[in-house]
From TrEMBL:
Organism ancestry: Bacteria, Bacillati, Actinomycetota, Actinomycetes, Kitasatosporales
InterPro entries hit by this protein: DjlA_N, TerB-like
Name of the protein this chain belongs to: Co-chaperone DjlA N-terminal domain-containing protein
SUPFAM superfamilies reported for this sequence: TerB-like
Gene3D superfamilies in the record: TerB-like (1.10.3680.10)
Domain Co-chaperone DjlA N-terminal span(s) in chain numbering: 95-219
Length: 228
């Protein structure tokens, strides 16, 4: 028994499969292995049966896979669906900016307190130089532009803007993060008094775009009203 086993074991070591990888693209991705923004190569492979390390017979293709330039791990290409940290921060910053504009557009730009609350939130999200006056000018420009293009239907254009900013972000944001965005928006609306019907509409649209269910939106909007 023993010599046979030994021979089998040897045979298994002599025969193998080797994959030769060819790069077919590159870019930057978030590596789940080493946990950060890294360069990657997209690779496609050709498998060959080897005897004593010498390729003999083709054994089909492998991949494509994504190889991290830092840790050299291979992943399925679905790993590219995740945004990089850099891209994620930019999406979050744009989302806070758009949400602030939407709430200000609904509530008007006449309240200094609302503008200050909005500008503080936008600066905290990463637009360091954002001022109250810039936000007011943007909201006015948006209203003028919407008036011209869509014949005065202000809500429609902002709904599109909100979905463009929030839809790509929502799947990558944990529930607490999505709720926090809505609460920020609610605080801007509340800065100059109770919600107006237009503000409530805008906040409902924000909540829906963030995939927060209607009951939770109602609960969060009520919670934002209660000073903590
Ligand atoms: Zn890595």
């Amino acid at each position: 028994m023993l010599p046979v086993r030994g021979r089998d074991g040897q045979a298994l070591r002599f025969l193998g499969t080797r994959t030769a990888w060819t790069p077919i693209g590159d870019g930057e991705f978030f590596c789940p292995g080493c946990g950060g923004d890294r360069n990657y190569q997209r690779l496609t492979g050709r498998r060959r049966l080897t005897l004593l390390g010498v390729p003999l017979l083709p054994r089909g293709t492998a991949g494509p896979v994504v190889e991290c330039a830092a840790c050299r791990h291979h992943y399925g290409t679905d790993v590219l669906d995740h945004p990089t940290t850099r891209r994620f921060s930019a999406m979050l910053r744009d989302a806070v900016h758009t949400v602030a504009l939407a709430v200000l557009a609904a509530g008007g730009t006449s309240s200094r307190t609302a503008l200050e609350t909005a500008a503080t939130a936008v600066r905290a999200a990463g637009f360091d130089g954002c001022t109250e006056d810039q936000l007011a000018a943007l909201v006015d420009a948006l209203a003028a532009d919407t008036g011209r293009v869509l014949g005065g239907e202000c809500g429609t254009s902002l709904t599109i803007e909100l979905h463009e900013a929030l839809d790509p972000l929502a799947p990558h944001l944990a529930r607490a993060g999505r709720e926090s965005l809505l609460l920020q928006a609610a605080r801007i609306a509340l800065a100059d008094g109770p919600y107006t019907p237009a503000e409530r509409d805008a906040l409902t649209t924000v909540g829906a775009a963030l995939t927060i269910c209607a009951d939770d939106v109602t609960r969060l909007l009520a919670a934002a009203r209660t000073p903590s």
